[in-house]
Design a protein that fits this description.
The protein has 298 residues and is mainly β. The protein is built from 2 helices and 16 strands.
Length: 298
């Protein structure tokens, strides 16, 4: 973790110069992949951002169930931990080969002023059946996330079909301006890798209540097979109207030339699109094999 020094921003030029280096734990597997995903959000409500780190390859007696580690900021000194095992909260995946923690993000889905954790398990419910799932775990307040097992989720959303791999990417933002964060995720392998993106709108203080992807508030389908629409997703207010807009990548479009689709929120009505081709803006990559849209950031 690299701290900004002020107006000059981050000035470190080497990873070893980081303000904080956190090392993953050793487990019975060979590739825990600590750091596969990271996110910042204030789960304790103290005004300082806390850190979530995914280790989707974490294994114990059941292979690759995955783990998510949440580290609380100590204040002006930032994150104090140097070992994964010193995390304030460690949340372990449900079953073998789920790959819980493949992607993590924060957002206040229930409007209580504390960031909640959203984390995916792309191979849920098993290494062979890869529907995928997105878990939402609410902050309990000043003590942060209070559970240690993914099975203690507030919400679990399961992918529609075997091999969909729901949750490859997740983003959180308020698409309809109700002050509750909504969840956007994708299933890149849906329908022969045509792909889909799913937007789950918060119900208010109850947060996200959908349990299956087909119950999403909005489902947007990709253009054609092998496009992998939904491989990357982002929620960000691109036009400054105060409403988060869904942005979805499909790196496989046209022999991996790639495309990015922008769907502008209409305001309190949110987003109504159900097809990639109705996006407000479509940006196409330059050449085949460019993989344009492989990664999106807010």
């Amino acid at each position: 973790m690299f701290h900004s020094v002020g107006a000059s921003g981050v000035t470190a030029t080497a990873a070893t110069s980081a303000n904080r280096i956190i090392t993953g734990e050793v487990d019975v597997g060979s590739t825990p992949e600590f750091g596969r995903s990271v996110a910042l959000g204030d789960v304790t409500g103290d005004g300082y951002s806390d850190l979530a780190v995914g280790a989707n390859g974490y294994s114990d007696s059941i292979s690759n169930r995955g783990r998510v580690y949440v580290f609380h900021s100590s204040g002006s000194g930032g994150i104090g931990a140097t070992q994964a095992t010193s995390a304030n909260t460690m949340i372990t995946g449900q079953a073998g080969d789920d790959q819980f923690g493949y992607n993590v993000t924060f957002g206040d889905v229930n409007g209580d002023g504390y960031a909640d954790l959203a984390a995916s398990a792309i191979f849920y419910p098993s290494g062979n059946d890869k529907n995928g799932a997105v878990y939402v775990l609410h902050s309990s307040g000043s003590s942060g996330i209070g559970v240690t097992a993914a099975s203690s989720y507030n919400t679990r959303i399961e992918g529609e079909n075997t091999t969909d791999e729901l949750g490859w990417n997740i983003s959180v933002g308020d698409v309809n301006g109700d002050w509750f964060s909504d969840v956007l995720t994708g299933a890149k392998n849906y329908n022969s890798s045509t792909g889909r993106a799913y937007l789950f709108q918060s119900t208010g203080s109850g947060g996200i209540i959908a349990t299956v992807a087909s119950s999403a508030s909005i489902i947007i389908s990709g253009e054609a097979t092998s496009n992998k629409f939904g491989f990357s997703v982002s929620l960000a207010d691109i036009n400054g109207d105060g409403f988060a807009d869904p942005v979805v990548g499909a790196y496989g479009y046209s022999s991996n030339r790639g495309r990015v689709y922008v769907f502008r929120s209409s305001g309190i009505g949110g987003v109504s699109d159900t097809s990639a081709i109705t996006a407000d803006t479509i940006i196409t990559g330059e050449n085949g094999q460019d993989y344009f849209g492989n990664v999106l950031h807010r």
